[in-house]
Amino acid sequence: MSDTKPTDTDTQASAGEPECDSVADHTAEQQNETHNEPETPETKPEGRDQRYRARLREAEAQRDTLAETLANTRRAILDQHITAAGYKPSAFADLPVEDVLNDAGLIDADKLAAAVTARVEALGLARQPRRPQVDPLVGGGGDDPGRTSDRAAWDAAFQPR
């Protein structure tokens, strides 16, 4: 170490100039750190491609599942309409669903009625006899004046004697 003190000119020169060496060293260290990082599957181009392929496979599987669900739902709706018309759905199993869809992809009642009529006439199908539907309001005995209600019977059972 020397016994000399720094002069004003030395301090002005060092204060006015940026410390180039330390700044350059710092940026060089940062660059070395980024280049020295091990390549992980996220940073490798091959890893990114594999992730995209996996996502693509998942999306395709989901699409296929949804398409199958849509086809099954359309077939079930078609079978309900055919049953309501009085025919067995199995007689119309080979009827393509696409033939009775409208532009929006929904089942068109007019196209379905025309297809059912054409099939019935071509094959000579007869309607299935349907059993009458049960009406839950009929037979309840609510209008019978001679019959007491259940509420009155319970009230009478718990009245003091």
TrEMBL record:
Domain of life assignment: Bacteria
Name of this protein: Scaffolding protein
Region annotation (Disordered) ranges: 1-52, 126-161
Basic and acidic residues: compositionally biased ranges: 23-52, 144-153
Species: Mycobacterium intracellulare 1956
